[in-house]
Predict the 3D structure of the following.
Amino acid sequence: MKKKSPFLKILGSIILLGIGVFIGKSFFGQNNVETVPIPSTIKYRNIGLKNDTIEVASNRAFTGKIIEVRKGSSIQDAVKEANPGDLIRVYPGTYSENVYIDKDDISLQGVVIKGEWPTLDGKKEINDAFLYSGNGILIENFKIINYKGNGIMGQAGNNFIIRNNWIIDTGVYGIFPQYGKNGLVEHNVLSKIADAAIYIGMCDNVDVRHNEVFDNVAGIEIENSRHCLVENNYAHNNTGGLLAFVTPGLPIKTTFDVILRNNFVINNNHENFGAPGSTVSGIPSGTGILIMAADDVIVENNIITGNNNTGITIVDLATGAPKANDPNSEGNPDRVVILDNIMFNNGNDPTGEIKAIILTQLDTKGPDIFAYGGGTGSTIRDKNKFRTFGLDGYGVAQITDTEHIVTMMTPSPVPPRSVSKEELGELTYYGVCAGCHAFGTRLIGPPTEILQAIHHDNPQGIVDYITAPKNLREDYPEMPPQNYLSEEAKMAVAEYILSLKH
């Protein structure tokens, strides 16, 4: 184990004083506005260029209709009325409903007046607040509380923006774009989520910036996703702060090209209250950053302190998910790069396997960086600055920073997904089912092969169940109904589930 200079502890303490300013400006700077401007369209930046923007066709003046929703009215009714390009403005009040957006280019904008938010309250009776399958969706300025499933879930929609939302106790996930491409998740505050507060699942080209996540099992999770930037977030008092990993059994088999940069990762020591048997239930309390089987992950310029197990943990699937069974998932974390970070006061109370391994070194304090298992090509800027374990095979990093990479979003909007009849079942499975069901691995719901055994040669049985589910097993949570799906989509996904093989 190697110690770093005390100078960095002093420097880190000084920098931590800036957190209050960071949080105040980032999350609560606009509570007193009485009017809200029409959302500006996205300026898509070139990847790798700092100042150049590209004007694209979508950057046109707003020409849609503005639909206002006030207390006592229904947001879903406004969605039904809206056409692509319209803006739905929701004024302060309490709305207890599920809002499903299956149209493209719809903007939903809460209007916050003198600290009063439009609030979606699920009353622990409704599963999801917002579900969207459309492309070009904007959801901003909402308070979302007391749902059983998800706060905001995307189902295969591209070009999404989710920002300035306050999400508390919404069940399994807070913000969960799944199988989408080209998205922005920023300036949200999330707490009391039983799985991941922000879960980027099977997505490409997503920026996650300026969010605060606390009192969750997982703070921010990049799972089976590629080309993601996680920057300027504040993750504190979660079980695990930031995660980049591969979950076996999902249709997308890899996580790679992820930058974790300029984040505060502090005191992530919350007890793990994830669903027993789920992937996140295995995250040890006290985990700052976890990298499991993800490739080409860069960890740069973060403040990582007070995490009682480790500051950064890097493991393969055999170590992190030993019960997983997916021969098509390559289980090693390759080409991880650790650049300059401020790390101190981590590992004060290591647990489980890390504690046992550290004891073999005649030590009781966990490391800032812990690496165990397979993987090749990983490097670190200066391993002598930190307390480390398992980095003997790491080389010296050949880069100093990633300043030239401003965003992972694409230079222009990606095309909306075009789905043929033959592809409908696969896309519905990717976009709706795979967040909770994987082949050979327990997530939130039963593994896919159990569904096959129950409904063998009976796709109608799956259709009936997803339309009106009943909780038949005490060891799994109740499944939310998927009755918003068309009959064609339900039958297509049922047939696809029964056809799946490893």
